[in-house]
Design brief:
The protein is an alpha/beta fold and about 210 residues long. It folds into two domains: about 130 residues, 3-Layer(aba) Sandwich (Rossmann fold), CATH 3.40.50; about 60 residues. Helices cover about 50% and strands about 10% of the residues. The protein has twelve helices and five strands. It has a five-stranded parallel beta sheet with strand order 3-2-1-4-5, with helices on both faces. It is globular, with a radius of gyration of 18 Å. It starts with a strand and ends with a helix.
């Protein structure tokens, strides 16, 4: 496999988002376990809507508000849910900079503008700007499409002129990986928050 392009997902790949983060968000919003069990699919869908940033944010927040405890406001929901930005280990950014010396490096993420702004600040706090880390970024909130929709991958391919067979994509969701593979991109599934354990990551990082 001759790789010239590397594509990172953000959440659970570059940034660690502990599983307990979601539980804490639900607790802070007063979304009880009973409510979660009764409306599980709907709440999960709304959380994805918030993260993807394709629907107007206030529309999504108003839909989430229905399941929250009385007294919760839209600004409170927005502030609480943006904890989904996660934490970035500095060593991962160091590795990305090393990889850029040998490969084109891109970011392809389902993320909204609010969370992304916080992510950028986290990177800056560690001494890096977005151009330091990525040749180009592709965000669902700006493209109006979210993974695993094949159109988001096709737009990335067309914009960068990358050859899919020369590209490697890391993501923590199997459906996102499968969608990339259908277009010829080599996809490597990452266990949440453990990219350093991924065999392809280990190999490329060691050779960078």
């Amino acid at each position: 496999m001759s790789i010239k392009n590397i594509i990172f997902d953000y959440g659970n790949v570059i940034a660690n988002i502990p599983p307990e983060t979601i539980l804490k968000i639900f607790m802070d919003l007063g979304i009880t376990q009973e409510t979660q069990a009764k409306h599980r699919d709907r709440i999960k869908h709304l959380m994805h809507d918030f993260i993807d940033g394709i629907r107007p944010m206030d529309d999504v927040l108003n839909d989430i508000l229905v399941y929250c405890k009385p007294g919760v406001t839209l600004p409170q929901i927005r502030a609480i849910i943006t904890d989904l930005q996660g934490e970035i280990p500095a060593e991962r950014l160091h590795t990305i900079v090393k990889l850029r010396k040998k490969y084109k490096v891109y970011l392809l993420s389902n993320i909204n503008e609010v969370i992304w702004a916080n992510c950028v600040q986290c990177m800056m706090n560690l001494g890096y700007t977005v151009p330091d880390l990525f040749d180009e970024i592709f965000l669902s909130c700006r493209m109006g499409i979210a993974k695993p929709d094949p159109r988001i991958y096709k737009q990335m391919i067309e914009k960068t002129h990358m050859i899919p067979e020369e590209s490697l994509f890391w993501d923590d969701r199997e459906d996102n990986c499968e969608a990339a593979e259908k277009l010829g991109i080599h996809a490597s599934w990452v266990k949440q928050n453990e990219v350093e354990q991924n065999a392809d990551y280990i190999q490329l990082a060691q050779n960078a």
